[in-house]
Amino acid sequence: MKKKIAVIPGDGIGPEVMKQTLRILCFIEEKFHHEFEMEECFAGGVAIDKEGTPLPDHTLKTCENADAILLGAVGGPKWDHLEGTDRPERALLTIRKELGFFANLRPAMLFPAMKDACPLKPSLIEKGLDLMVVRELTGGIYFGEQKTFTDKAGKKSAYDTMFYHEDEIRRIVRIAFEIASKRKRKLLSVDKANVLESSRLWRKTIIQEAKNYPDICLEHMYIDNAAMQLIRDPNQFDVIVTGNMFGDILSDEASMITGSIGLLPSASLDADQKGMYEPIHGSAPDIAGQNKANPLAMILSAAMMFKNSFDLTREADMIESAVEKVLDEGYRTADIYSENTVMLTTEEMGQQVLDT
Amino acid sequence: MKKKIAVIPGDGIGPEVMKQTLRILCFIEEKFHHEFEMEECFAGGVAIDKEGTPLPDHTLKTCENADAILLGAVGGPKWDHLEGTDRPERALLTIRKELGFFANLRPAMLFPAMKDACPLKPSLIEKGLDLMVVRELTGGIYFGEQKTFTDKAGKKSAYDTMFYHEDEIRRIVRIAFEIASKRKRKLLSVDKANVLESSRLWRKTIIQEAKNYPDICLEHMYIDNAAMQLIRDPNQFDVIVTGNMFGDILSDEASMITGSIGLLPSASLDADQKGMYEPIHGSAPDIAGQNKANPLAMILSAAMMFKNSFDLTREADMIESAVEKVLDEGYRTADIYSENTVMLTTEEMGQQVLDT
Ligand SMILES: CC(C)[C@H](C(=O)O)[C@@H](O)C(=O)O
Ligand SMILES: CC(C)[C@H](C(=O)O)[C@@H](O)C(=O)O
After folding, report:
1. DSSP state of A123
2. What positions does the entry give for substrate binding (chains A, B) (predicted)?
3. Chain A (159-198) residues lying within 8 Å, Cβ to Cβ, of chain B
4. Could you identify the atom of ligand 1 that is nearest to the CA of residue A137?
C-alpha cells in the first residue's frame, strides 16, 4: 500500500516522540511492503518562530495532499503571550476546520499494566476501563461568531456563539452510532438540553437519527451530571458522543480517569477516512529535549492511523500489542515510572517497542 | 434576630428534607431567641401541576420579600417532556436572574467519616479535601441570546451566546478573592482563553482585579485541564472561580470527587448577603415520599444561610458540628450507608441531628 503521510512534529516533546514513531513506521513499511511517503512540516510555536504564523500555507497544503497526518504537540509558555489567531493552538483549529476533521475519537482505556496509576479506587475499575468519547470538532462554540467590544462607558464585553446546524449534528452522531454498533451497542449523548437551544436541537437530531440504529441503546445525560458519573462509575458508559466544548472537557476527564494520559492517542477524521492523529498529551516543554518523554501515545496514534485511515488492521494490532507487551513487561518512561518497573528513555522505549 | 425566610420545598424528596431542616430551624430559633418568619411557597414541577407555571408570581414575590430562601429540589421525569421556559428548572434560573444571585458558592468537602465513599484512591485524599468552587450564576451562555431557526431547505439550526460584560466578571471574581483571602490565599481562575473571546475578557479582568488583592496567589487554567487536574490531585486547589457553564460542570465534578453529594450544600448570593440555599443533589423522584432521603445537605444549606445571609456564625457552627458528629457516630441514611454503620430514615436522621 502506498500512502502519503504529513508529519508535523510541532513543539516541546513533539519532535522526540515523533522520531520514535517514525522508526516504527519504517519498520512496518518494510515488514509489510508498504510505501509511506512522509513529508515533514512545521506548525505551532516552531512555525511562529520560523515563519511568523502558526500554520504556514505550505503546511496546510501538505496536509491537504496527504492521506493522513501525524502531529506531535503544539504550544508552550513561550507563545502564551500571543493572542487569538496568533497562538500555536490555532494551527490545530485551522487544520481541523479546513480539512473538515469533524469527528474526534478519543479512546480512554486503562492498560492492565497501568492499573495502579488510575486515580480512582481499585473497586471502581475492577473490570478495567474502555471508553470512547466521540467529540464534534469543527462546530459549536469553538467556531461560532465571537467578538470583544467596548461600550460608551469604555467598558468591555465579549461573546462567543455556540452554533449547530442539524446536519453538523447528524454527521457526528452517525459516526458515534457506527462505532457503538461495533462495540457494546450503547451510546450516551451528552448535552445541556435543559438550558441550551443548541443542545435541544442536538438531542432532537440524535433521537431522529436513532431510528436508523434500532439495535443501539441511546441514552442522554446533562454535561454536569456526566462529569460526575464519569467519576462515580466510568464503566456505566461505553461510547459517549457530544459537542465540541463538552467533548473537550469530557474527553480529557475520561482520559485522566484512566491515569494514563501519557499513553492515549486520538484521531480527528473527515467523512472519507482521512484524519489527523495525535497524542492527547501536550508539548510538555519542561522536559523537552531531554530524552525523557513518553513516545507511546504518539506510537499508538500511528496505530489509530493504520486502522482508521488505511484499513490496515493487522499493522495497527501489531503496534498495539507491542505497546501492551512492553508495559506488561514493566518498561516505563519517567512519567509513568513506579517502583519495581524499569525506567527507559524516549529512545529506549521506541527501541523496546520495535524489539517486541 | 428577626428574619423572613422563603421556604420552597419543591419536588421529589424536596419536601421531606425540608421538613427535617425546618425542625432544626425551630430549634435554633428557640435556643437563640431568634424569630424566623417562614413562608412556604411552590416552585418547580409542583407549581406546574398546581398553577401551570414553574415559578408563580407570588412565589417570586415571597422570595423578593424574604431575607433568604431555602429550596429543596426541583424537577423530575414527570416534567421532562416540557420545553424551555416551561420546565421546572426554569424556576431556579428565573429566581437567580430576577433576584440577582450572581455568586454561587459550592463547597466540596470530604467529611472525615465519609472517606470510604470517595471514588478517588485513598492516597489522593490523605490530607482530606476541602475546595470551594465560586461559579458565576446569572451570566454567560445560560442567559445569553438563544434561538432555533429553520433555513430555506427546511433544516434547523440553533445557537446560544456566551456573553460576559467586564462588570459581571469583576463582581464575581471579587467575591472569589474575598473568599480566598479567608482561606489559603490561593485562587484558581478557570476559562478557555485559548479559544473563547469571553474567556479572554474573563482572564484580563481577573488579572486587573488581582492588583487589589496582592496577597492572593492567582493562577489560571483551561477548563479541559481543570477537569483533569481535579481528578489527578484535587488538593492542589483551594478556591476556584469560573463562569456559569464551566462552573456548572466543575462544581459538580468537584462534589462527586468528595463522594458525598448527598451531603453538600450550596449558596447563591446577591451583592447584599441575600441568598438562596439549596442542597446540590436533585429531587431523586425514585425514592421520594419513602422517608429514605438524606436531609443532611439541606440541613447544611440552612447552616450556610446562617453564616452567609444572617452572620449567625455560632448557629451555623452548631449545625455543622452536629452533622459531623452524627456522621462520626456512624449514623447514615440509605444513600450513604455502608457496612458497620447505622441506617436511619429521613426523620430519624433529622432527630439525630437535633439530639446531638
Ligand atoms: C488546544 C485547544 C484549542 C484544543 C481544543 O480545545 O480543542 C485542545 O484542548 C484539544 O482538546 O485538542
Ligand atoms: C437545573 C440546572 C438549570 C442547573 C444549572 O445548570 O444551573 C443545575 O444544574 C445547577 O447546577 O444548579
Report:
1. G
2. 96, 106, 135, 224
3. 159-167, 192, 194-198
4. 7
In chain A, CATH 3.40.718.10 sits at 1-102+270-356, 119-258
Q: Range(s) for CATH 3.40.718.10 in chain B?
A: 1-102+275-356, 119-258
Active site residue B307: no
Q: What is the pLDDT of residues A141-171, one digit of tens each?
A: 999 999 999 999 999 999 999 999 999 999 9
Any known ligand binding at A67?
Answer: no
Rounded to whole angstroms, the Cα distance separating A74 from A46 reads 8
Q: Which ligand neighbours the alpha carbon of B224 most closely?
A: 1
**Other CB atoms within 10 Å distance of the CB of residue A27:** 15
**Other residues' Cβ atoms within 10 Å of the Cβ of residue A127:** 8
CA of B323 to the centre of ligand 2 (A): 26
Q: Which of A94, A52, A97, A47 is nearest to A75 (CA)?
A: A47
CA distances from A162 to A140, A236, B8, B315 (A): 5, 29, 33, 45
B223 with A161: Cβ contact below 8 A:
no
User: What percent helix, strand, coil does chain B show, rounded to 5?
Assistant: 45, 25, 30
Determine the Cα–Cα distance for residues A293 and A274; give it in Å rounded to an integer: 28
Residue A209: enclosing H or E segment and its boundaries?
helix A197-210
Q: Which residues does chain A have within 8 Å of residue B144's beta carbon, measured at their own beta carbons?
A: 159
Ligand 1 near A248 CB (within 6 A): yes
Question: Which CATH number fits the domain B119-258, given the four candidates 1.10.3720.10, 3.40.718.10, 3.30.110.40, 3.30.70.360?
Answer: 3.40.718.10
- Positions in chain A short of pLDDT 50: none
Identify all chain B residues contacting A205, using CB atoms and an 8 Å cutoff.
156
- Helix, strand, or coil here: A249? helix
Q: Pull the grid cell for residue B290.
A: 419513602
Residue B292 CB partners (closer than 8 Å, separation 6+): B333, B334, B335, B345, B346
- Does the distance separating the beta carbons of A200 and B84 come in below 8 Å? yes
Residue with CA at minimum distance from ligand 2 atom 1 = B89
Q: How far is the CA of A149 from the centre of ligand 2 (A)?
A: 29
CATH homologous superfamily, domain B1-102+275-356:
Isopropylmalate Dehydrogenase (3.40.718.10)
Is residue A248 part of the annotated active site? The answer reads yes
Q: Which of residues 255-284 of B touch A (CB under 8 A)?
A: 255-257, 261
Cα distance from B58 to chain A (closest Cα, Å)?
24
Q: What does the alpha-carbon distance between residue B117 and residue B113 come to, in Å, rounded to a whole number?
A: 9
Tell whether B291 is in a known binding site: yes
Q: Which residue of A has its CA nearest to B121?
A: A121
| pLDDT the model gives residue B61 | 98
Please indicate if the annotation marks B79 as binding a ligand.
yes
Residue B153 Cα distances to A166, A200, B93, B150, angstroms: 12, 20, 34, 8
Q: B302: closest CA among B284, B315, B287, B289?
A: B315
- Give the pLDDT mean for B189-207: 96
**Cell numbers found for residue B282:** 436533585
B257 vs A126, A229, B121, CA distance in Å?
19, 10, 10
Q: Does the beta-carbon distance from B231 to A228 stay under 8 Å?
A: no
The answer to whether residue B286 scores a pLDDT higher than 90 is yes
Among A234, A335, A237, A316, which residue's Cα sits nearest to residue A277? Answer: A316
Pocket of ligand 1 contains residue A91 by CB under 6 Å? no
Q: Which atom of ligand 1 lies at the shortest distance from residue B195's CA?
A: 3
Q: Residue A222 CA: which ligand 2 atom is closest?
A: 9
pLDDT for position B85: 83
Query: Rounded to 5 degrees, what angle do the CA atoms B285, B290, B296 make?
Result: 80
State which fold the A1-102+270-356 domain adopts: Isopropylmalate Dehydrogenase (3.40.718)
